[in-house]
Specification:
- The chain starts with a strand and ends in a 6-residue tail after the last helix.
- Helix 6 packs antiparallel against helix 10 and helix 7 runs antiparallel to helix 9.
- The chain has 14 helices and 13 strands.
- It is elongated and about 80 Å long.
- The protein has about 400 residues and is of the alpha/beta class.
- Bound molecules: D-malate.
């Protein structure tokens, strides 16, 4: 698919002393055509509303014929290539009067965030620019008492992502967008994101989420997977280990802990559940935001605060209340740790206020052969705050895994 064609007129001030459209003006004209196409289609704010900017990295241009003042050029723009963080557009400008090809250009852009770091091309940009989706599919899977939204990308050995509270699978978007040699599977737990139903009473909720993951693996014919869980996602993985250890190839425990809630923590869960019932799910996120992100993330990446609110806004009150009850009553998982016999990576923000580095170090120390890696300038949402650093650590871990039997 391509962006809309736009017609652009050449003006005298864009031409050289011999009256031909000059080089610099030609590039500007093509740029104007790109913005006009966006404005006429997905909107000129397509990039900013997705928290990225397309930074030009490479341009190749072929001038085929000259254009003169008054000529109207029809500019066609199409996407010809897509990488994880980059995409390439081709533009062709043809004079409408006689169909002469004037210029053809190929431009490669890298999506950067506000502080200039390359960042995966957002889904909306992929869709709007008609880029190949890289085998992306969102399946709805019926489970007893609910329906799960499961995002699947690519093919290869399975790599499963489980979100924390009160988030959804989009918190793993930078990881799901990368790791091209893996089949990435990210599920919205019941009651969160685009999944329906909720986890049920506190006693069964985490177990039900864990069983849902096993059903997802069944539905995709996956026998064993590498499972990554952040915070509550980690609690779900402890439950998964209790119930389905034979399906775990390796574990990535992100910004999480093994111990159960303290008495004070349990009381806070009940208070938060009351907030959810009284004021809704976004209010729950508002209470958590001040402790979720590293200082640098909250100031330099304000869109992360918006993303947290949006994720909480997609959760249902029942889902939130069920998850709070489940976390409040969850078992202490420390007794499991010594028996975890698969390669395990513990990774988390060096500034995580909810599961601080010493807690994560203790978690890694309890699991035979496990390693803790602290991600600088990240808080509790390290995979969203510092995606490149997290992906590097995850990639090293995955590369070192023994072959699956
Ligand atoms: C999460 O991110 O999942 C929560 O912070 C977990 C918790 O509150 O224990």
């Amino acid at each position: 698919m391509s962006l809309r064609d736009v017609d652009i007129r050449v003006y005298p001030y864009e031409c050289d002393a011999f009256g031909h459209l000059n080089q610099a003006a030609c590039l500007q004209l093509l740029e104007r055509a790109r913005w006009e196409s966006l404005a006429a289609g997905p909107g000129a704010d397509l990039f900013t509303r997705n928290g990225v900017w397309p930074a030009a990295r490479h341009t190749s241009i072929a001038y085929e014929a000259s254009a003169l003042p008054g000529d109207v050029l029809r500019v066609e723009t199409e996407t010809v290539k897509r990488g994880t963080t980059s995409f390439t557009l081709r533009q062709r400008a043809t004079r409408t009067r006689d169909q002469t090809l004037i210029v053809e250009v190929e431009l490669t852009f890298v999506c950067v965030d506000r502080i200039g770091r390359p960042t995966p091309v957002p889904d909306e940009v992929v869709r709007s620019l008609g880029m190949p989706t890289g085998g992306r599919e969102v399946r709805r899977l019926r489970v007893d008492g609910g329906e799960l939204a499961v995002e699947i990308r690519g093919s290869g050995p399975a790599l499963v992502f489980v979100h924390g509270f009160p988030f959804d699978r989009s918190m793993w978007r930078h990881q799901v967008a990368g790791f091209g040699r893996w089949q990435r599977i990210a599920t919205d737990l019941r009651g969160f994101g685009h999944s329906a139903g909720h986890g049920g009473g506190p006693a069964e909720s985490l177990a039900r989420h864990a069983d849902d993951l096993a059903l997802v693996l069944d539905a995709l014919n996956v026998r064993r997977a590498v499972l990554c869980g952040l915070s509550m996602g980690g609690y779900v993985l402890f439950e998964f280990w209790r119930r389905h250890a034979d399906r775990v190839r390796a574990l990535v425990l992100a910004d999480t802990k093994a111990e159960a809630d303290s008495t004070e923590g349990r009381r806070a869960r009940d208070e938060l559940a009351a907030v959810a019932r009284r004021e809704g799910t976004v209010a729950v996120a508002e209470r958590m935001v001040p402790r979720l992100l590293a200082v640098a993330s909250a100031t330099a990446q304000p869109e992360l605060v918006t993303a947290v609110r949006e994720m909480a806004g997609r959760a249902s009150v029942d889902g939130i209340v069920a998850a709070l009850g489940a976390m409040r009553d969850r078992a202490d998982s420390r007794e499991l740790l010594a028996g975890i016999g698969v390669p395990t990576l513990v990774v988390g923000g060096a500034e995580d206020a909810l599961t601080p580095p010493d807690v994560m170090q203790a978690l890694a120390d309890g699991i035979p052969g496990a390693r803790f890696v602290a991600i600088p300038a990240a808080g509790h949402l390290a995979p969203l705050e510092q995606p490149l650093a997290v992906n590097r650590v995850l990639s090293d871990f995955l590369d070192a895994l023994p072959a699956d039997d």
